[in-house]
Amino acid sequence: MLTLLLAPLAVLFAAVSGLRRLAYRRGWLTALSVGVPVIVVGNLTAGGSGKTPLVIWLVNWLHAQGYRPGVVSRGYGGAARGCIEVRPDSPPAEVGDEPLLIHLNTAAPVVVGRDRVAAARTLLARHPGVDVIVSDDGLQHYRLQRDIELAVIDAASGLGNGWPLPAGPLREPRRRLRSVDAVIQVVRGAAQPRSYPPVTSWRADYRAGQAWRLRAPQEKRPLQDLPRRDWLAATGIGRPQGFFDMLDAQGIRFSPRAFADHHAFRPQDLPVDAAVLMTEKDAVKCLGFAGEDWWAVELDVAPETGFIDWLGARLNA
């Protein structure tokens, strides 16, 4: 019923976004090159697809191949205006939780800005050695010319009900997948990949990795080595069920508590004396007031070999 009520707004949203795509396709608006290859990691749906962990994997993989990657991001949820470089001590409330997490997990330079072209130029001006840029999100930011487009789709939720925002989750219609270079399906728990012909599609398995204590981040343990107790699993990500499914797959006993995506955690949100498990994205916002037994769960990202080979070949070409 709600979908039907929102249908007129969805039609309007689709028309506006379609006109914008057409303007770039016809050359009425021009995409701008920044002088180095650009890889866009984005999604068709609003939130929860798992693109940021893939960005982290991709940046670290590029490092291992001898590239010097940098990252641009909108910095969703942050209050920063203009183009801001992310530092290890940057407040998540200023730069956004995802850009901070990317920087902490890759050590790559990260610049946030709503204008991705300006962010990329700022990044290259401050770090002239960067030879490839990864755009965290930005599939719909056509002003930034890109060389490779990767569309990330959660295998469990797919493309939802297939409707555009706000009647459904789609930022662009399904046919947009025909123009991307590859679809990466994020598989968590028992979810199974779907078919998205005719575009090439690969899977990336996301599994719970080690856990580290927020009060002592250098203290890491395999998840299975944590004490057997009833944990409070708390998260503010786009698709919290994905986190809960991964804990289930590890046999962890827990009570789930979901917050809105990008939730700005406050001390009163969680009992300080509880045993808490959370994602690393949540943890970067809780470091200043974490309880003694609050732990962040790392995410192991494992794309299939075919994708890695394909990506290496594309970059070499």
What does this molecule look like?
The chain has 317 residues and is of the alpha/beta class. The protein has helices at 2-26, 51-64, 92-95, 97-106, 116-126, 240-249, 280-283, 305-316, and strands at 38-42, 69-73, 84-85, 110-112, 132-136, 148-154, 182-188, 201-213, 216-222, 231-235, 254-258, 276-279, 294-303. Strands 1, 2, 3, 4, 5, 6, 7, 8, 9, 10, 11, 12 and 13 form a 13-stranded mixed sheet that branches. Helix 2 runs parallel beside helix 4 (97-106). The protein is globular. It starts with a helix and ends with a helix.
Give a count of the beta strands, DSSP E runs of length 2 or more.
Answer: 13
Distance between the termini: 50 Å
CATH architecture descriptor text of the largest domain: 3-Layer(aba) Sandwich
Helix content: 25-40%
Structural class: alpha/beta
Arithmetic mean of pLDDT: 93
Q: Summarize the biggest pleated sheet.
A: 13 strands, mixed
> The CATH topology of the largest domain is what?
Rossmann fold
The best one-word shape is globular
Radius of gyration: 20 Å
At the fourth CATH level, what is the homologous superfamily of the largest domain?
P-loop containing nucleotide triphosphate hydrolases
